[in-house]
Amino acid sequence: MAVRLSAVIKAPNGYLLVLRQDSPDGTHRHLLPGRRVDGTDQPFEDALRRVLREQANLATTIGALIGIDKTGVDDEYVFVAHTDEDNSVSGHFTDRLPPAPSGYSWNCIEPTPTAIHDANFTSKRIGNLLAGHLRHGQQPWALTDIRSRPSATRRHHKAP
After folding, report:
1. Residue 159 has what pLDDT?
2. Is 91 helix (H, G, I), strand (E, B) or coil?
């Protein structure tokens, strides 16, 4: 089974690095950097590090797993990736990246709930995850690993 590994990457300007796809009808959608990999390609952190090196020529340190979008087809695992880029280099960050995959362009989105919703993320759940945390004042690259959170407890309500 294949999975999609995605990365939340903070660009030097403080924005979120994304891939933008423009449609002929004038609409667009955004994806986090990453790609589909064989689900047996473990650990996912190593696979995502390789993907980001190939796709964006970025040396990264893979951090927290902040979300899993269980689609039933290609589940998406979203990690925080910290770049080892030299932020003192002048010029726009996306100009220093290699060409984006076919049909896409590199883009940076302001980390606000409105900008995230306007970006039309695929999948919607990923956009909602990012916007929801931003609405509560949490930057996506500062979130804790969901694997280290305590398990959810189910609360049963007693009938009156």
Report:
1. 61
2. coil
